Amino acid sequence: MRLKKNIASSESGFIFNPGTGDSFSANPIAAEIFLQLKDGNAVADIKKNILAKYDVDTNVLEKDWDDFNAQLREANLLDI
Amino acid sequence: MTKLAYERPLILKMNAGLMNKFGTRTEYEPVKQIDGMPVKRLIETYGSPVFVISERTIRTTYRNALRSFTTRYPKVQFAWSYKTNYINAVCNIFHQEGSWGEVVSGFEYRKALGNGVPGNQIIFNGPEKTTEELELAINNDSLIHIDHFEELYQLIDISDRMNKKPRVAIRVNMDTGVYPMWDRFGFNYENGTAWSALTKIVASGKLNLTGLHCHIGTYMMVTNAYTIAVNKLCDLAWNCKTQLNTVIQYIDMGGGFPTANDLRGAYLPAKDTIPSIDEFAEAITSALLNYGFSTAELPLLILETGRALIDEAGYLLGSVLANKRLSDGRRATIMDFGVNILFTSFWYEHKISPAQDFTHHTEDTVLYGPLCMNIDIVRQTITLPLLNRGDHVVVHRVGAYNMTQWMQFIQMRPNVVLIDEKGQDHLIRSAETLEYIEQMERMPEYLAPKPPKGA
C-alpha cells in the first residue's frame, strides 16, 4: 500500500491529486493514516498506532483498513 | 489513558459543479430516546429490532385531527381503521378516545368485539363477508357497508330469514380526478350502478339504508378530490330523500389522508407537499355544509382515518449487522430489519436516524435488510454518518400498516412495545418463537423424523 508520490495532503484532511485534478476530504482518522503513509511508515506500524490511540479492536480495524485501501485505489491515489 | 472514539477511515471526492439545493445531510442530531425512554435501554430490554409505539403521540394526533373536524362541523365520528394497526392495545387507545371500529373482515370484526367495541359502533367494510359474519353483524346491529350486488342479495336473503332489518350503507366509487381510480370497491357513481344499488335496497324492504360510504384512495395529496367526493355522495343522499323517501343519516368519507413520510421517487419532501388535516377537514366539511341540507338534516360525518393517526406514533429500532462495499464502490449497510417487518419501505423513503453520537462525516449508503433475498432493500440510497456494527438506528413514522402487513418470512416478527403517557414501557406483542410458528403445522406420520438406528 503505497501512495503516489505527488499527492498533496493537509492535516485537516484535504487531499489533492495533481495528476487528475481530483480533490478529496478525509475524516480525521483517514487524514492521520494518510499522513503516516506519506511519511513512509509501514502499514503494520500505522495499525499499531491506531490500535493504541483509538477505541477499536483488531478485527474491526483490519476490516476497515481493507475498505480504506479500496477507497484509495478507487480514488486513484495508490501507486500500484 | 482513555482511548479516543474511533470512526472508520473515509475519503470523499469533492465535486465541483451545481449544488444540490436540498443538501445531502439530513441528520444532525442522534435520536437517543423516545418519549424519554432511552433507545439503548429499549433494545437491551426487548431486543433488536423492536417496534415502539408512543401512546402520547397517538392521543395528541387523534385529538388534533378530531378537533380539525369538530370545530368545523357539528356531527363527527371517527372509526379506527383496524387494518392500519390492529394490535389490541393500539385499538383500545383509539376506542378510549371515542373512536368506533372500522373493520374489513370477520377476523377484524371479532377483534373489535373482543376489544369491547359495542356492535352498533362497528362499521363492517370490505368485499368478503361470510354468511356467518353477516349474521353476527346483523345481530349486533352493526353498520354493514355493501361492496357488490352479490353481497346485497345475500344480505337480503339473510335478513329475510332472520326477520331482521340490518342497518346498511353502500360503498360508492367515483371519479374524483385522482388516478388510479379505486373502482374495484363498491358501486360506481358515474355509470349509475350506485343509484341502482340504492333503489334495490329500498325496494327490497328488507334493509335499513342509513348511510353512504366512499374511500377514494390512499395517501391523497389534493383536498379537492374530497370536495368532489362529498358532492357526489350528497347528490346520492339528496336523491335518496327526494326520490326514495329515505333519509341518509351518515356520510362516511373513509380515509386516505397522507403522513409526512416521503414517497419513493417524490421530488419534494412530503412535509412540504402534503395538505394538513385542517385543509382536508376544511374541504370535506365546507362541501357538506354548502350542499344545501338544512341544519337538522345534516348527516353524521364519519371518518375512517388510519395512517394519518398512527404513522407518526410508530418507531422501529434496529441495529447495524455489517458494512460492505459493493462492486461499483457504493457503501452498503446491512440492518437487522428488512422489508419483512418494514413493509412500507416498498413505497416510502423512511427517515432513519442514528441513535448514538456521530461526527459530521457522512456517506451515501444502500440500506439492506437481513433477508437472503435480493428485494430486501430498506433505502436505495441514504446519507448517513459512518455506522459501525452494533450501532442502533431509529426508523420514523412506521405506525401504519407495518404491524399488520409484516411477513413472517425468513425471520420472525419482533416485540412491539408501547410507551404510555407517563413514559413507562409495556410489551404489547411478544416476539414470535419457533414454537409459535410451528404450532399450526401438522406432520404426516410417514414424514416424521425417526430416531437413528441403534439409538
* Number of helical elements of chain B: 13
User: Roughly how much helix do the residues of chain A carry, as a percent range?
Assistant: 40-55%
Q: Based on CA inertia axes, which overall geometry of chain B fits?
A: globular
Largest interface by Cβ-Cβ < 8 Å: A-B, 27 and 20 residues
**Low-pLDDT regions of chain A:** none
Q: Which sequence of strands runs across the widest sheet of chain A?
A: 1-2-3
The beta-strand count of chain B equals 23
List descriptors.
heterodimer; A: 80 residues; alpha+beta; 3-stranded antiparallel beta sheet; 3 helices; globular; B: 455 residues; alpha/beta; Lyase, Ornithine Decarboxylase, Chain A, domain 1; TIM Barrel; 2 domains; 9-stranded mixed beta sheet; 8-stranded parallel beta barrel; 28% helix
Characterise this structure.
The complex is a heterodimer of chains A (80) and B (455). Chain A is α+β, with helices and mostly antiparallel strands. Chain A has one domain (8-74). Chain A has helices at residues 28-38, 43-53, 58-74; strands at 8-9, 14-17, 22-26. In chain A, strands 1-2-3 form a 3-stranded antiparallel β-sheet. The radius of gyration of chain A is 12 Å and the shape is globular. The mean pLDDT of chain A is 91. By secondary structure, chain B is α/β, with parallel strands linked by helices. In chain B, 28% of the residues lie in helices and 23% in strands. In chain B, strands 4, 15, 16, 18, 19, 20, 21, 22 and 23 form a 9-stranded mixed β-sheet that branches. In chain B, helix 5 packs across helix 6 and helix 8 packs parallel to helix 10 (277-290). The mean pLDDT of chain B is 94. Strand 3 (22-26) of chain A pairs antiparallel with strand 1 of chain B.
